[in-house]
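Technical annex B. To support the medicinal chemistry partners, we prepared a structural model of the target in complex with 3-dehydroshikimate, based solely on the information shown next.
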Amino acid sequence: MRTTTAPDLTIWFLNGPNANLYGLDANKTYGSDSFPVLQARCEKKAADVGASLRFLQSNHEGVLVDWIQEARGVADGIVINAAGLTYSSVPILDALMAFPGRIVEAHMSNIWKREAFRHHSYISRVADGVIAGLGGDGYEFAIEAVAKLVRRERT
Ligand code: DHK
């Protein structure tokens, strides 16, 4: 836990289609935390590591691409769970390739324990690291990881 108050780095956390429904499905594939609870957890973690956080969700590929482009020159790092677009989106991959900061890919579930079509991620190609299967804890770890990678680069 940091004691200073002013954030010295900026992280954008981008969430893809249907992430707004986390915690609501009967099977609890994505745990029991609702999306607002996950957001609150991430905001607290970001504050703890001295980062300013922008936590965003869209069901639309183009909106996610726009946000990744906007993050250039503004964010030091991105955490991204592109959800179902992880396995198909060349536009999101291309936008991330043009982002100069650190990138951590996060998934609530362990995508490799699931259907074969979830085993190949386009995002992993550009991610510094991948965290999957740890639910909301993984989201917090992803924020810590980006902060650590950015600060290490500055030293
Ligand atoms: C979330 C989704 O919505 C799925 O489409 C992915 C990912 C997995 C997750 O585990 O967070 O396949």
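Notes passed to the chemistry partners:
The pocket of 3-dehydroshikimate is lined by residues 18, 30, 81, 83-84, 107-109, 111, 118 (CB under 6 Å).
The beta strands are 9-15, 51-57, 77-81, 102-107, 129-132.
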